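Before the break, one more example. Copy the sequence into your notebook; we will annotate it together after we see the structure.
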Amino acid sequence: MNESSKIVIREGSIADCLAVSEGIPEFSDGKYGYDVYQQRLSGAKHLILVAFDGTKPVGFKVGYQKDEDGSFYSWMRGVLPDYRRLKIAKQLADFQEDWAKKNGYDAITFKTRNYLKPMLIFGLSNGFYIESVEPQPRLEDYRIILKKRL
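Here is what the structure looks like once it is written out:
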């Protein structure tokens, strides 16, 4: 990213998310393709946010209404490695939270895995609390569910 670049956050598409995902090492398994996004988002109130550096998508955050408990589920997110540490994830999260409040949600939830330490740290340092843990065969694969009241 050059010094004069300005990151712009706006609503985007599944295609934008997939374009960013191709450059994210954590998503190299290709497990989350167009069909998975379509299945999760179809028929659900959802929000797809994309961070752009000019016309280049460099980060994304996708959420949807998963439960009927007043919360908005922040499902997938990612930022290209060259754009990390620029607070893009925080900008995406703030945009999503503002949108969720305006749309009547009272909390944001997300799930991560025990081995994804940066996601745990991000959540805890941004007002999320651990709500529950889903044990898995391997300790590092435990799913950790976090929640933030809006």
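The longest helix spans residues 88-102. The two ends are 32 Å apart (CA to CA). Try to locate both features in your own notes.
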